[in-house]
Specification:
With 134 residues, the chain is mostly helical. Helices cover 78% and strands 0% of the residues.
Amino acid sequence: MEDSEKPGAARAVRRTVLGDAYVDASAADPDPVAAEFQDYVTAVAWGAWARGGALTNRDRSLLVLAMTAALGRMEEFRLHAGSAHRAGVTDAEIDELLFQVTGYCGAPAGVAARRSVKQVRAERERAARDGAGR
């Protein structure tokens, strides 16, 4: 991939995994520093996804979930747990990941991540119910 193609590829992967609504909302801040920061985050974090290599987006999603849980970054963990299905990650895989996080990073990290997963799933079920009732 040419250097000139990298920013667009990073933006495309971010949009594919996190969804249009999230990316559009994060880009809506009129503050120029916020826009520059979003561009930087996209280039650094999502550029790693867009570079290719031996890992699939599913693999990368699982790794991001494990790392954010291990670091106690529950806001980011929730974001990625709610978006992981777009990268091909199943609920069963997230459940298994929580056992690994707990075993290798400790019960506080695993318990916090489990709480977040329960919240994400409850929100997803509520949205599905609300959408089905229309």
